[in-house]
């Protein structure tokens, strides 16, 4: 019978506890993976690869030693077996130790002699990962650990988010539909098509006994009874619903003993936005297979599919029009009660205005998309050589509809657009890398690409009857454009390291990259580029690194330009209800490449391995930037703008540890940049690229990117406002630069606190400076719906600071709303619905607690299996402090970054509350 001997060894301990150390072997051969426990306690350990183990014990306690296929052995701990408190090693010289080497009675014995021990058992015993023991015909035991069997892993994630709007416009709740007539504030009913809420106080009105389609509770009349109930008031902010989003993700993976695996992913997301009756649905799934084909090569392939559907995409500015219609409705008119009259026409407080629910029920802005993709990857690596071969194919189809239905206010005629875009791309690439040594490598890449875009757009207009809407119109036209591009991208890059330049272990890393790309659609057919850098690392005892780089790239525009928001540039602000997305930007053949030259300096400094400071300076120059150029009834996608930009970024990372269960880390990032347009092609003075025809963001030579241009007050040479004979400032007929939307600087501050299994994260961001045009507030002022007009309409004897046309100091006192004058002459209505854009320019500064999250995670381990879960609670946009009361600089007007800095009935800012649960097993 083979014997398992217990060899007791005594070593030192640097602490005062009693420490027992031992070794388990058989005839001098160490046995790893044995379990050693102090009887009657939960103190257990395992022997390592050399059979050694360490465990806390006191004199008189018993140790139980157990092993699969062996009898348990119990030994008693005595004083001579323990490390003494003075830290000295006491040599064992008693005869007990010598007897243990001889006497089988002190050995751990097998229960039976049923086979032969094979050394292939040892690695499994070391890790205690045996899941099966097999006795072979020759008598030898064979084991299987968990790495020798197929294993399955699953992951389920469920996320739920509720969003509520905040920082909404504030409205007056006291004044009814109407205006001043014959020196009195007069209520005017919906039949009069009065758009203003400059009428009398609603407390002077009541419902009559005669109901109508506009007021089912009774038409509104002047109060004739002091005991009559007041009018019901409706807060426009109650129109919005809370947004909801639910997302479920399931992952499953089967892995073979060789590391090959098959992974399946499925995700489903559904939800709604702040507009009633909206719904978004998205399904995505993928199948991924990985295989080690040999010791030096592996392959990977994947198939994926995504399907997305949105029943209110804002493809034709419909969402902004809904917000507009809701906001300007008088306080006493209930839009929700009904959106249509008995004759099918729109039920609204005025025929020239829309009911938001009518726009929702007749919404035509939809979006559907499907995407299929396939990817295959082969990697070979041996010694100094590696090669990666990759092929990708993708096909996507996007279907959009938009238009304006019958009886929608503000449009000249009903219209409908059906847009279908098919996009296919395929690429085959190969990357070869040769490593000379740890100091140097060279790498080459070649990539063949083919793209095809087919755009079909069908325009319908000129309907003889509503029954023909939307597909049977009298006037139809089709845009049918097909584009193809073939590219060959080549690149060579390499790196070399010089050691011990200034001190021991420092290094100088030189990197260079060069590419020459061919394209069938670029004018010159070739696009060269390069990048070089020098990096000094490990300076001052590995505390400082410095990197200097410079690069040049040339790129042509994408075939597809899905951003259609430039269409609003064809319309004045007062034409907002007519807006259509009916122009496309098409990349022409023989396109001119956009070039970028960029230089940068990076510094990184580490202090005590817990502080990390980084600094980056960059300067870049862009030429031939593509922008929309508008003509009388067309738009072109053209390379018209050159500009330059310089900036710095400074970052600080800090990790603080306190014991084993608490850590704290933060990152502080500071960003500052300045840019300026250096040239415009074709002698243009300015190019608007976002906004409206009369208020827009622009490229202007010598000015920062995106300066806001619009109407202002007329001023003299000393910048004094010129006041007219009525006592009000004069509107300048020429547009002026009103502000720069770019911030002075931006600061981000993220924090992570971990305590045991809890993790708490919170992130601040601070944007200082910059300007925003709050056209929403200006239009609400015009209609008499804003709280500002409710508070100030009785202001009298006000003198505007300025001079008369003759140059004298203005002394003419005015009333903001004089009932003896037409309503169009009051303070807010006299300049039209667009007002004077200068009045709507506000400071875009804000401080935001953008994210708060708290998560708890736990692992459950049962020898070979691991189950874990993580639950998180989070809040986005927890609070915002801003100079503007309602507008927000990072909130875009038409869901594109180009319209940041412009607010005209934008989607409200949302505060989100969410929870996420992830389970893995």
UniProtKB/TrEMBL annotation:
InterPro entries: CarboxyPept-like_regulatory (IPR008969)
Keyword Cytoplasm annotated: no
Endpoints of the signal sequence: 1-18
SUPFAM superfamilies referenced in this protein's UniProt entry, alphabetically: Carboxypeptidase regulatory domain-like (SSF49464), Porins (SSF56935)
Entry keyword Iron-sulfur: no
Lineage top rank: taxon: Bacteria
Keywords for this protein: Signal
UniProt-recorded name of the protein: CarboxypepD_reg-like domain-containing protein
Taxonomic source organism: Flavobacterium phragmitis
């Amino acid at each position: 019978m083979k014997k398992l001997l217990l060899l007791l060894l005594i070593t030192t301990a640097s602490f005062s506890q009693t420490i027992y150390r031992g070794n388990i072997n058989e005839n001098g051969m160490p046995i790893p993976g044995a379990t050693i426990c102090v009887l009657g306690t939960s103190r257990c350990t395992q022997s390592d690869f050399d059979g050694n183990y360490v465990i806390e014990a006191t004199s008189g306690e018993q140790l139980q030693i157990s092993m699969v296929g062996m009898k348990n052995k119990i030994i008693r701990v005595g004083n001579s077996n323990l490390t003494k408190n003075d830290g000295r090693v006491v040599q064992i010289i008693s005869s007990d130790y010598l007897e243990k080497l001889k006497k089988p009675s002190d050995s751990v014995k097998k229960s039976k002699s049923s086979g032969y021990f094979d050394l292939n058992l040892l690695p499994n015993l070391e890790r205690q990962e045996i899941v099966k023991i097999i006795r072979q015909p020759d008598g030898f035991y064979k084991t299987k650990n968990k790495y020798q069997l197929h294993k399955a892993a699953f992951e389920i994630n469920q996320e739920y988010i509720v969003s509520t709007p905040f920082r909404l416009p504030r409205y007056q709740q006291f004044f009814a539909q109407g205006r001043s007539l014959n020196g009195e504030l007069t209520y005017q009913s919906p039949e009069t098509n009065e758009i203003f809420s400059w009428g009398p106080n609603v407390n002077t009105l009541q419902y009559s006994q005669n109901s109508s389609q506009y007021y089912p509770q009774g038409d509104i009349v002047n109060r004739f009874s002091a005991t009559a109930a007041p009018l019901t008031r409706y807060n426009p902010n109650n129109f919005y619903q809370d947004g909801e989003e639910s997302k479920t993700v399931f992952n499953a993976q089967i892995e073979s003993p060789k590391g090959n695996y098959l992974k399946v992913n499925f995700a489903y997301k559904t939800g709604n936005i702040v507009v009633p009756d909206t719904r978004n649905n998205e399904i995505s799934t993928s199948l991924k297979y990985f295989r080690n084909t040999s010791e030096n090569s592996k392959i990977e392939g994947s198939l994926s599919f995504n399907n997305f559907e949105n029943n209110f995409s804002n493809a034709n500015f419909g969402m902004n029009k809904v917000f507009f219609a809701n906001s300007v409705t008088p306080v006493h008119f209930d839009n929700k009660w009904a959106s249509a009259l008995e004759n099918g026409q729109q039920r609204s407080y005025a025929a020239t205005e829309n009911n938001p629910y009518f726009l929702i029920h007749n919404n035509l802005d939809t979006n559907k998309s499907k995407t299929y993709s396939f990817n295959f990857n082969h990697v070979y690596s041996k010694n100094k050589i590696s090669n990666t071969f990759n092929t990708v194919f993708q096909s996507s189809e996007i279907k959009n509809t938009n238009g304006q239905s019958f009886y929608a206010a503000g449009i000249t005629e009903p219209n409908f657009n059906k847009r279908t875009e098919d996009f296919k791309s395929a690429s085959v690439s190969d990357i070869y890398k040769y490593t000379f040594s740890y100091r140097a490598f060279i790498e080459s890449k070649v990539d063949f690409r083919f793209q095809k875009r087919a755009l079909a757009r069908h325009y319908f207009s000129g309907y003889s009857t509503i029954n023909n809407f939307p597909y049977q119109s009298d006037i139809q036209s089709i845009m049918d454009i097909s584009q193809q591009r073939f590219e060959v991208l080549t690149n060579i890059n390499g790196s070399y390291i010089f050691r011990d330049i200034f001190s021991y272990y420092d290094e100088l890393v030189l990197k260079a990259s060069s590419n020459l790309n061919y394209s069938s659609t670029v004018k010159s057919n070739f696009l060269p580029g390069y990048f070089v850098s020098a990096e000094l690392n490990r300076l001052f005892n590995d505390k400082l690194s410095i990197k200097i780089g410079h690069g040049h790239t040339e790129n042509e525009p994408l075939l597809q330009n899905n951003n259609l928001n430039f269409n609003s540039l064809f319309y004045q602000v007062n034409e907002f209800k007519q807006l259509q997305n009916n122009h496309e930007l098409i990349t022409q053949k023989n396109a001119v490449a956009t070039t970028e030259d960029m230089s940068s300096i990076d510094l990184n400094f580490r202090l005590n391995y817990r502080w990390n400071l980084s600094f980056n300076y960059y300067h870049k120059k862009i030429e031939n930037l593509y922008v929309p150029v508008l003509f009388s009834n067309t738009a072109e996608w053209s390379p018209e703008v050159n500009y330059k930009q310089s900036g710095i970024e400074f970052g600080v990372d800090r990790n603080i540890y306190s014991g084993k269960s608490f850590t704290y880390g933060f990152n502080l990032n500071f960003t500052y940049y300045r840019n300026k347009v250096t040239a415009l092609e074709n002698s243009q003075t300015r190019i608007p690229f976002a906004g409206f025809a009369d208020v827009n963001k622009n490229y202007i030579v010598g000015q920062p990117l995106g300066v806001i241009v619009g109407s202002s007050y007329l001023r003299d040479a000393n910048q004094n406002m010129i006041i007219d004979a009525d006592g009000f400032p004069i509107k300048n007929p020429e547009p002026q630069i009103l502000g720069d939307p770019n911030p002075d600087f931006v600061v981000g501050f993220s924090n992570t606190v971990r305590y045991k299994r809890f993790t708490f994260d919170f992130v601040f961001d601070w944007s200082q400076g910059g300007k925003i045009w709050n056209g929403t507030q200006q239009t609400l002022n015009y209609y008499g719906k804003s709280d500002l007009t409710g508070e100030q309409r009785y202001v009298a004897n006000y003198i505007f600071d300025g001079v008369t046309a003759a140059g004298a100091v203005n002394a003419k006192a005015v009333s903001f709303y004089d009932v003896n004058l037409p309503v169009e002459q009051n303070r807010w209505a006299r300049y039209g619905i667009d007002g004077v854009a200068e009045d709507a320019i506000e400071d875009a500064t804000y401080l935001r607690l953008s994210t708060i999250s708290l998560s708890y995670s736990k692992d459950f381990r049962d020898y070979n299996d691991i189950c874990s879960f993580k639950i998180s609670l989070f809040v986005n946009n927890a609070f915002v402090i801003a100079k503007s009361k309602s507008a927000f600089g990072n909130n875009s007007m038409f869901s594109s970054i180009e319209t940041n800095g412009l607010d005209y009935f934008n989607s409200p800012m949302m505060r989100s509350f969410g929870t996420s649960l992830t389970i893995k097993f």
